[in-house]
Each structure stands twice: as C-alpha cells, then as structure tokens.
Amino acid sequence: MNLNRYLEQVADTLAWTQERRDAITKKAVEEERTLSVDEAQEFDQLTADIQTLTEDHKRFSELEATEMAHATAAPRGPAIIIDREKDEAFEGQNFTRQIIAKAWGMQTQRSPVAVAQERWGRENPRLVNVIKADVLGGGSGSGEWGNELVSQDTWLGDFQNFLYGQTVYNQLPLREVPANITIKGQDGAASAYWVGESKAIPATSADFNDVTLTPLKVASLAVVSNELMRDSSPSAEMLVRDALVEAIRQRIDTTFISTAAATAAAPAGILNNIAATSSSGTDGDAFANDAKELMYRFVAAKNSGGLSFVMNPSLAMAISLLRNALDQYEFPEVSTTGGTIYQMPVIVGDNVPENALIMLKPSDIYRIGAGEMQVSISQQATIEMDDAPAGDTDTPTAPTGKFVGMFQTESTAIKVVQSMNFARRRESAVAWINDADYGGAIST
After folding, report:
1. Closest listed residue to residue 311, CA positions, set 443, 175, 160, 438
2. Which run of H or E residues covers position 65?
3. From CA 236, how far away is CA 228, in angstroms rounded?
4. pTM for this one?
5. Pairing between strand 208-212 and 338-341?
6. How confident is the model at residue 5 (pLDDT cuts 50, 70, 90)?
C-alpha cells in the first residue's frame, strides 16, 4: 500500500467517524432527550478517534509532501512501517475484513494475507498476523488457502459482541448449562399439614420436571456482489457485516420471545403454553396494577427474586411518557434503550411484540450455544435463491429452478451458522400481558 492510498483510507475513516458522532447527537435532539450513558461513551470515544485521525492525516500529508519534494533525489530507503494498532471504525470491522480478504483473495487469485497487507497492513498489522495464522499461502493442496472454497474463521470476538448487543436473548443473563445433559428439578412445592390425634394424614405431592437441551442450528445465507468486495471503505464493510448478522439477529429474538411450539429444528418460545393476562387500562395506575398482577404469578410460585421486564422500544417509550395528575412522569428511569421500573431492569428489543409486557426470571431460562459461530464463504458454490429451498439431502424434492452459480454471476456467498438452544427451567419463569397499550388518560 502506498502512502497516497493510506491517506485516502484515513480520510474515509475520519469521514465515517464524524458522520457517526453527528448521528448520535442528531438522534438525541430529534427525541428531545440527553445522551444515554452508552451514547455519551461512544460520543467521547468517537471524538478521541477524530482527533487521532486528524493528527495522523496531517502528519502523513506532510510526509507525502516531503517525499514528492525529494522524488528526484537519491534512491529511497526502506519503506516506513507504522507498527501500531488502529481502533475499529465500527464494532466487528476486523472480523469483516478477514472475510473480505478471503473472498477478494479468491477473486483476484492472491493470498488473503497479501490482500490484508495491501489494504490494512500499515494501520493494523495484528489483523494481518491473525490472517496469516488462519490461512496459509495459496495453492490447491491440503491445508492451502486455495482449497478452502468453503473456509471457517475462528477469530470471532468482535463479531459476536455486535450480535449480542442487538438482541434481547443475549442481553439477558440466562443460565448457561452443558449440552445434551438432562437436568431434573422441582416445579412445585409439596405441602405439609397439622394433624389431630388419631386423624389421617393428608396425602401430598410435589411437581417435578426435567429439561434436556440438545444443540440446534440457526443460520443465515447471504449473497453479495464481488464489486462490493472491492470497496474497502467502512461503509461497504458494514454492509457485509450486517448481511451476516441481520437474519440471525431477527430469528433468535422472534423465536425466543414467542408462543411458538418446539419443532424438530427449533426450540419453543419462552411464552409457549404461558397464558397471557389482559391489561387493566392505559394510564399509570393501570400499569401499576398490571405489574402487580404479573408479580403475583411469581410470588405465588415462591419465585419472585431477580426479575426483569422485557418489552418493545415503542412500549418503553409509551411508559416513559406516562404522567400523573400533577404532570409528573410516572416512570422517569425508563427509556427506549431500557432502564429500570420498580428497581427491576428493563430490557428492550425490536423483535418483542409491540403490545407485550413480559416479566421473567433470567436465571430460570436455560441456554446452550454461547460459543463461536461458524462463518463460511464461497465463490464457486451454487445457491438455491429461495426462502423455502427444496435441496434437502435427507428428503429432496423437485428443484425450484432458482439455482444461481456464484462463479457465473461474479458473486460471493457468505454463510453463518450458530449452534444453540434454550428452554424454560420451570413454568413460573415467565408471565406476560399481550394487550398492553399505555398512554391514554392520565392518572387522577
């Protein structure tokens, strides 16, 4: 990578960082609120990044001017290597760049290491070293990158953090358990009685249950053009990353917060077979009554500790705007990003039904599959471009006629697969209202 190319990348990253910082303040202004804690931290970090990038651009612009002035002088010495780590312009950028290096390496018949060195070696040498460790030199032999038409990445921490930060499922502190292990437990209390002399002792029983979590798969398959792979700006990298994440993000939450029954391929939603309660009204007093009704379910089961609310951002907004007869906010500590109500955490997610007010105990929900995801790429595969594909290997049916070759269309297929599962520990883990619609008449 020459100095001019590097200056262009610094300028692109600086522009993206400034746009991102402006977007944070613009959103707060439009919503007529101050910055949240997370927004303030990101704003401060972006401000620091802008200062660093601006100083770097100035330094290397001066270096470029010096090199041009001495272009006719004696032969130039060794290339200047800047051994420093550049912060990611967005979360998940390093992981995305690994995929781009592999895909574009196959497209241009070069080593992914060479691609990474050319594009990002000066600003992020550690990324190049990671790719070197993961992918060997080009070739068709065993272990060489040319035979990895479907290859897997293992440096996934930043990518997973992005996914976890966007879903209700991974914001909740669910109970992590081993896979393929049957866990036996008690779902109801036994009873004891005072018994008079010579009287029969009443019989009692206790409810028991067991939970076994076997690994299931959630996956997404995206196809992007090779032209997109050629764009090295952060915005293009974000598009690639979002294509990998969005389908899985949607599927995890829509299944987790649902009444769906279990199937051979998918777990049951945590609301499955949990009877919903009707809301008592639309004002602050009604919300208090509704929360009391939900809490009663846990109290009756002697399971009332460590509870959380889960809701859609729109419902959280409606609750945050409730006012009493004195025109005071009823719940000032809740917002569209979460908060607390009655000192209980509020977790919000776009995939929660808009009228669902859910109270749950995270430690009473088991999960497996917090490990790494498998990401595969191919520019040689043939993809059935259909959301109901017929190409099953166990029970194949007539083809849909929607098969597309990646080589012929100059495209890259990117596949993400995660092994996971979840289940309630006991029936009393969840209670919910399915028709919450707060924001009507104020309390009197």
Report:
1. 438
2. helix 37-69
3. 7
4. 0.62
5. unpaired
6. low
